[in-house]
Amino acid sequence: MNILLPRKLKLEENVANIWPEFGSNRKDLIKVHHVLNHTSGLHNALANITREDPLQLSDWDECLNHIALSVPETEPGQEQLYHHLSFGWLCGGIIEHASGKKFKEILEEAFIHPLQIEGELYIGIPPGKCVESRLATLTIDKDDLQKLLGVCSRLATRTLDKDDHEKLLRVISRFDIPSTIQPGDVSQAATTLPVIFNSLNVRRAIIPAANGHCSARALARYYAALADGGFRRAISKDGSIVGFGHSGLGGSTGFADMNNRFAIAVTVNKMSFGAVTGNIINFVCSELNIPVPEEFSIFSEMGPNAQICLGRLLNN
Predict the structure, then answer these.
(1) Would you say residue 203 lies in a domain?
(2) pLDDT-based confidence at residue 188 (cuts at 50, 70, 90)
(3) What is the DSSP letter of 21?
(4) Is the domain of 178 the same as that of 288?
(5) Three-state SS at 129
(6) What is the DSSP string of 77-123?
(7) Interatomic CA distance for residues 177 and 172, integer angstroms
(8) Residue 62 pLDDT more than 90?
(9) Does some domain include residue 117?
(10) Are residues 295 and 211 located together in one domain of the fold?
(11) Number of domains in the chain
(12) 46 partner at 20 to 30 Å CA-CA among 86, 91, 236, 251?
């Protein structure tokens, strides 16, 4: 973690030493590594904002202040819970205070310019029609997301046979759905997400966990640059580690195969369970004769009609 920083950050360093305001409300013992491995206890640090006024997420500094004043729900290192939204501000606050630079400056200097992806990756687009006119409109596959509402109950009641039950678990596990998100939240998201994230003020905001705007090429180059290390391991069907990557809630994904020095990204603007994405990943990997990450192999098992097969699993 020494990119563009005046000093090298240590994993064992207390975040409050870097970001003094962060040390309030029992957060003085949270270390850098607790933030990076999602054990800081701040997985719900922005929950009040998202419930009461989601548009406040477009205020970068206000969200940093909210994080600094938040109260952890668990002791540091006690429990690993996916910080699906707060993670971006936690890392951003640490890096800004350690470097003395603003988030966008660091993004451009550390990634955009070295990777030569100018005009292809933004977290907060600049004003002007030049970029706005090139952005895809976010939509949702409502049929797919409505099926998700029944997933939890079907898994709980085990109304599927063993093979279908295991396949469904593998599909759902791709998305890292936070434990705090309930079926009702998914239903609400289906109607609110497109409205919020298609709005111009949100697209111009810095929301590092949610509003990255990029081409598939830019995302693939980002993963390629990180091929020597990563944050979520990709495992083949035989259990061997082949790389790392991350699938977003909605079907977009990116990952790198470390052994084969290969990176790929698929970006979609129609949020779904990811059958289309999975088929693309399977096709490219099979053509190049490289291992398919286990989380995507489910779609190759379903064959070319993966979307239909997935619908059958969810509707049974």
Answers:
(1) yes
(2) low
(3) G
(4) yes
(5) helix
(6) TT-----TTHHHHHHHHHHHHHHSS-HHHHHIIIIITTTT-TTTEEE
(7) 8
(8) yes
(9) no
(10) yes
(11) 2
(12) 251
